[in-house]
Specification:
alpha/beta, 12 helices, 39% helix
Length: 299
């Protein structure tokens, strides 16, 4: 799939698009250190029934933003809302994963009328971020010069594809399901110049539990239909976090576990997850007429 571009007040947002424009709109949000590429298989399963958008978050993938643009999750949440409005959708379904879940939860908590429904899968939440692997990456990226040198020399790619220290391969149940080609694509922006490496560094260092904690109160009032679906063998974000979300979000209808699958389930078991997600979206994703006086931009 070829990436498209949308200019916003934040910058040039790149995204994948699939499906018929007359179908219900669905926004799929990735986390770290991935990009819209993470959703490529899922889009193929969903595109016959839904109009899908998978953007690159600011600081990751091919999205281009200026030096002064904040990359924390509140800014990402605002960007996602602006992007969908620019693409012609005032209301849409939202599917989120990993750190993108923080931006999604803020959007759900603060702009619930924007969402027809919500799917949370293997996401950051409450105070569980950063996980140890990301905390180590944050410590590394605070060092002067070394991270940029390692990126330019391809050391991150070497570690991730050729050693037992690979954080990517630690995120799947079956390491053979995550190819070297996929890992290279996720890390490709780090090889494309100092500006992209600096945006990646800023993104990682902006990661904090304060954003998901700010969303908790609003989530406890969120009554739009919600599905929680988790990889049973996620080593990074335990299914217990998904169970807690299910118990505390009023609109949560189901909590599903997919066995023999790790954190990057989109690489490993996309068909099984897409089946749960697609069935849920088929019941809830189509926008309905707003009630008189309802403002989609209000919480």
């Amino acid at each position: 799939m070829e990436k498209k571009h949308q200019q916003t007040s934040f910058g040039d947002i790149t995204y994948l698009e699939a499906g018929d424009p007359s179908s219900p709109p669905v926004l799929l949000v990735h986390g770290i250190p991935t990009s819209s590429y993470l959703w490529r298989h899922v889009l193929r399963f969903l595109q016959n029934d839904f109009h899908c958008y998978a953007p690159d978050l600011m600081g990751l993938g091919d999205t281009e933003v200026g030096e002064g643009v904040p990359l924390h999750m509140e800014a990402q949440s605002e960007m996602l809302e602006e992007l969908m409005l620019a693409l012609g959708h005032e209301r849409f379904a939202l599917v989120c994963h990993d750190q993108g879940g923080a931006a999604a939860q803020l959007l759900a908590a603060r702009r619930p009328a924007r969402l027809t429904c919500l799917v949370i899968t293997d996401s950051v939440c409450y105070d569980n971020w950063p996980v140890p692997a990301v905390a180590r990456l944050q410590a590394l990226l605070r060092l002067p010069l070394l991270p940029d040198l390692a990126s330019r020399l391809g050391l991150f790619q070497l570690v991730e594809t050729c050693t037992p220290l690979s954080a990517f391969r630690g995120g799947v149940y079956d390491s053979k399901k995550l190819t070297d080609e996929a890992i290279h694509e996720y890390l490709r922006p780090l090889r494309e110049g100092p500006a992209r490496r600096e945006r990646f560094r800023r993104f990682v260092l902006a990661g904090s539990p304060i954003y998901t904690q700010r969303a908790v109160e609003g989530l406890r009032r969120f009554d739009r239909p919600t599905l929680i679906v988790w990889a049973a063998d996620d080593r990074y974000i335990s299914p217990s976090w998904g169970r807690r979300l299910f118990e505390e979000i009023p609109g949560a209808e189901r909590f599903e576990l997919v066995p023999f699958c790790g954190h990057f389930w989109q690489e490993e078991r996309p068909a099984e997850f897409a089946s749960f997600i697609g069935e849920f979206l088929s019941r809830h994703a189509r926008p309905v007429e707003q009630a008189p006086g309802e403002n989609a931009a209000s919480a």
